[in-house]
Specification:
Belongs to the enoyl-CoA hydratase/isomerase family. It catalyses: a (3S)-3-hydroxyacyl-CoA = a (2E)-enoyl-CoA + H2O; a 4-saturated-(3S)-3-hydroxyacyl-CoA = a (3E)-enoyl-CoA + H2O. GO terms for molecular function: enoyl-CoA hydratase activity. Keywords: Lyase. By secondary structure, this protein is α/β, with parallel strands linked by helices. It has a 6-stranded mixed beta sheet with strand order 1-2-3-5-7-10, with helices on both faces. Strands 4-6-8-9 form a 4-stranded mixed beta sheet. The longest helix has 20 residues. Helices cover about 45% and strands about 15% of the residues. The chain has 2 domains: about 200 residues, Alpha-Beta Complex (2-enoyl-CoA Hydratase, Chain A, domain 1), CATH 3.90.226; about 45 residues. The chain has 11 helices and 10 strands.
């Protein structure tokens, strides 16, 4: 993807590109390093609401920033500078609404980070199921340097991704880490040399997912999201319920039958 002519204001801040079973959500504010203004957050929520209506045809979503310099460099600081505490809480709720829409989407969502993923950008990536990144990418939660704390889920999801100790260090210091460090910490699942390889790798993963039982993938995501951060007993109960739900699907019957009959399954998504 190349930067389109004109200013950021000349076009919608978020667009959806569709290619077969893959949908790509592009944050398109390259001159502002794709910063998350309220307009962008609302557009992201709307994009996932729109995709949810056609979820049966989408087997995976890629989230990417336009321009090649940043996935998302953070929240739009100018839009935050004049907020009252009550308006700040509302801005935080809007960020959480986007994260919830991503987590509720039944197909895997891959954040493709190429450049900065800072503040709200890292929080957006953390809401996705998987983070892929180019070698040129960097990550951080620098909110304390502005007298703020993470407001779009960073204090919740970053400890789950990298552990409590490292999450505290990153949040307390505002320090950035590079892609290699992020991969070693478990934040990034895979690294790629450049943007082209990044997007190709994400698409290949979604195509691999698409070959499996759609019902099972959606159930697995539901359990993984719902069980995150819960006590073991609660998480186990959620898994039991999801496992039982799988037995209600035609895909489970087909998958087991195909295994027994030594043939490739023909999943119907039911």
């Amino acid at each position: 993807m190349t930067e389109q002519p004109g200013t950021d204001a000349d076009r919608a801040p978020v667009r959806i590109e569709r290619d077969g079973v893959v949908a790509t959500v592009v944050i398109d504010r390259p001159k502002a390093l794709n910063a998350l203004s309220p307009e962008v957050l609302r557009a992201l929520a709307d994009a996932f609401d729109e995709l949810l209506e056609e979820a049966d045809a989408v087997r995976g979503v890629i989230v990417v920033g336009e321009g090649g310099r940043a996935f998302v460099a953070g929240a739009d600081i100018r839009s935050l500078s004049t907020l009252t505490p009550e308006e700040g809480a509302e801005a935080s709720r809007l960020g959480h609404r986007v994260a919830s829409a991503i987590e509720a989407f039944p197909a895997p969502v891959i954040a493709c980070v190429d450049g900065f993923a800072l503040g709200g950008g890292l929080e957006l990536a953390l809401a996705c199921d998987v983070i892929y990144a180019t070698d040129a990418s960097s990550f951080g939660q620098p909110e304390v340097r502005l007298g703020l704390i993470p407001g779009f889920g960073g204090t919740v999801r970053l400890p789950r991704a990298v552990g409590l100790s490292l999450a505290k260090e990153l949040i307390f210091t505002g320090r950035r880490i590079d892609a290699a460090t992020a991969e070693a910490a478990g934040l990034v699942a895979r690294r790629f040399a450049d943007r082209e390889a990044l997007l190709a790798g994400a698409r290949a993963t979604i195509e691999e997912v698409a070959a499996n039982a759609w019902t099972a993938v959606a159930l697995a995501k539901r359990v993984l999201v719902d069980a995150a951060g819960t006590p073991t007993e609660t998480a186990a109960s959620l898994e039991v319920a999801g496992f039982a739900d799988a037995f209600r699907t035609a895909d489970m019957r087909e998958g087991v039958a195909a295994f027994i009959e030594k043939r490739e399954p023909e999943f119907s998504g039911r």
